[in-house]
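Budget justification aside, the reviewers requested a transparent look at the raw inputs and outputs of the sequence design task funded under Objective 1. We therefore reproduce one unedited record. The lines immediately below are the structure tokens for a 510-residue chain.
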């Protein structure tokens, strides 16, 4: 029998993959911790640790089940520090006759692995990762011939195709979207549940990373690592979410408060992105629970289903349709640097200081903090999308190019000029004040537009529209903003623009 080498990437920890359904003595698995993956961006220390810890435990389980596994640790003397270089020497050493790998999720790695056959002079087979609802090309087929990639039409197609929350071909509750019941601020007397955390000792991995002098950002409590790194832990976190957070998920989906870092969000993105759990089993469990518990309202469940069946699959579709060009789009030609305080949280703006500090502490911020606080500010401040991408790709536990870049460059920075969204997600302080309890505790005044205490979001908001008028005025979803702008007295406009310019000139001191 031919000896086959199968590569498992760090985000392919899928126990249910057909590869693992039986042990084959002619198959050797390889997993590797490599500098090519630790160094392509400055990762949060918790992100690097989570990947290595989850990979090691996955390899242990494969071995325990009787599989042959080569696991290269980062500090292994044989480690050549790249996928290709390691596969080359392993193939020679073990007289490998064919190589197999699962379709990678990242374009960069996909390109590298496509050259394997040529480099190794061996037959190489690519198989599906058996994780997503959609294939890489299904999105392109669905939107073929259409001018716009509307998430809503894709989402409805997915709901129908997979019969999710459907009754006789119609959406359950007779509506596709329950956003009008959602988007509530946290009431003053409401106590949010504490997040469910794990307490794993990961000090050996932290020591290895520090010893290898890999550049990282953020903090870690190495004796009590809080993220799930096994399938069992991932399922436990999901159960916790379903039991305690799902009943409020939709209602407080957009709410922000300095008193809670994840509100009622699931925090399962890392577990799903590394494939310890699948989107289908998450959705099945959520819907089963909803069916068995009359107390959970449809708006909570639909809001959650939309994120996974809609947004997550949609972003993957956009990625594979638009890469590699997508990675260099810069619709507004923004050129500025990210303020220094994106790496410390040391700013007087409470919303940014809290969102950034919690990101450094937990490698996590929820969607609205990412979109309407850090993303919103970077866009208003005219930061180059490359800078913004690097920051998001590094700092979050769940950050992988396919879902980071589409959310950051696309949804958040509108650098794609409207491929993902129909208009930029920007707001003045008004939105942040409406959805959060940040502004009451802030140095700046959310209601003030000019003056020392004026919230920077207010003048930067108008500066953004004014400087991008040529690009945005004709957008039918934005037109009203220019009606308001046109009605302002010239002196008011000038004051706003001067205020914004002053803030931009001392952005590191805000
Ligand atoms: P929940 O709010 O509980 O949602 C459940 C799940 O839905 C998430 O786990 C996630 O898998 C999925 N989901 C929700 N929103 C999105 C979305 N917009 N796109 C894709 N999937 C979604 N998500 C990542 O997984 N990796 C990233 O690198 C990433 N970068 C982002 C950058 C920016 C600027 C923005 C605005 C969003 C980004 N997101 C990213 C999407 C989203 O913010 C995270 O998926 C979510 O915050 C993860 O936390 P959670 O598991 O508690 O999510
Ligand atoms: C994020 C990450 C890191 C930090 N390190 C590794 C690694 O050493 N080995 C590995 O296989 N994967 C790692 N990953 C996740 C990869 O970036 C991800 O598996 C690939 O990009 C595939 O899309």
């Amino acid at each position: 029998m031919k000896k086959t080498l199968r590569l498992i990437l760090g985000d392919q920890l899928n126990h249910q993959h057909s590869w693992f359904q039986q042990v084959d003595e002619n198959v050797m698995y390889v997993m590797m911790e490599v500098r090519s993956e630790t160094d392509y961006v400055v990762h949060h220390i918790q992100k690097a640790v989570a990947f290595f810890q989850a990979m090691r435990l996955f390899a242990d389980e494969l071995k325990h089940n009787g599989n042959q596994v080569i696991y290269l640790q980062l500090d292994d003397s044989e480690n050549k520090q790249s996928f290709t270089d390691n596969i080359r020497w392993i193939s020679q050493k073990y007289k490998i006759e064919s190589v197999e790998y699962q379709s990678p999720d990242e374009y960069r790695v996909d390109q590298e692995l496509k050259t394997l056959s040529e480099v190794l002079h061996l037959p190489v087979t690519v198989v599906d990762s058996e994780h997503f609802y959609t294939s890489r090309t299904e999105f392109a087929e669905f939107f073929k011939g259409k001018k716009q990639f509307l998430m809503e039409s894709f989402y409805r197609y997915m709901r129908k195709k997979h019969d999710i929350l459907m009754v006789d071909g119609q959406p359950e509750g007779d509506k596709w979207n329950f956003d009008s019941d959602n988007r509530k601020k946290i009431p003053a007397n409401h106590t949010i549940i504490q997040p469910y955390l794990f307490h794993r000792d990961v000090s050996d991995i932290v020591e290895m990373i520090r010893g290898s002098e890999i550049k990282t950002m953020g903090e870690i409590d190495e004796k009590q690592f809080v993220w799930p790194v096994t399938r069992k832990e991932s399922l436990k976190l999901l159960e916790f979410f379903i039991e305690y957070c799902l009943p409020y998920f939709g209602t407080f989906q957009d709410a922000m408060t300095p008193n809670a870092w994840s509100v009622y969000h699931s925090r399962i993105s890392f577990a799903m992105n590394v494939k310890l759990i699948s989107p289908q089993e998450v959705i099945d469990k959520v819907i089963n629970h909803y069916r068995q518990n009359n107390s959970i309202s449809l708006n909570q469940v639909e809001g959650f289903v939309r994120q996974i069946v809609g947004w997550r699959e949609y972003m993957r579709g956009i990625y594979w349709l638009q890469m590699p060009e997508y990675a260099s789009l810069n619709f507004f030609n923004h050129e500025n640097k990210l303020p220094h305080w994106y790496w410390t949280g040391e700013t007087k703006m409470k919303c940014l200081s809290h969102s950034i500090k919690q990101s450094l502490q937990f490698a996590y911020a929820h969607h609205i903090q990412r979109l309407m606080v850090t993303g919103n500010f970077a866009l208003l401040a005219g930061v180059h999308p490359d800078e913004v991408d690097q920051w998001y790709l590094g700092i979050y536990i769940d950050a992988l190019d396919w879902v980071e870049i589409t959310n950051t460059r696309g949804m958040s920075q509108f650098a794609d000029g409207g491929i993902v969204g129909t208009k930029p997600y920007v707001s003045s302080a008004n939105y942040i004040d409406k959805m959060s309890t940040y502004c009451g505790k802030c140095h700046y005044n959310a209601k003030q537009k000019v003056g020392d205490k004026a919230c920077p979001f207010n003048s930067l908001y108008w500066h953004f529209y004014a400087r991008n008028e040529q690009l945005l005025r004709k957008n039918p979803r934005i037109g009203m903003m220019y009606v308001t702008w046109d009605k302002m007295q010239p002196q008011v406009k000038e004051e706003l623009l001067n205020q914004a310019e002053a803030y931009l000139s001392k952005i590191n001191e805000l």
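The first strand starts at residue 4 and ends at 7. Residues 9-11, 32-34, 37-38, 43, 48, 51, 104-106, 109 surround DLZ (ligand 2) (CB under 6 Å). Computational costs for records of this kind are itemized in the attached budget.
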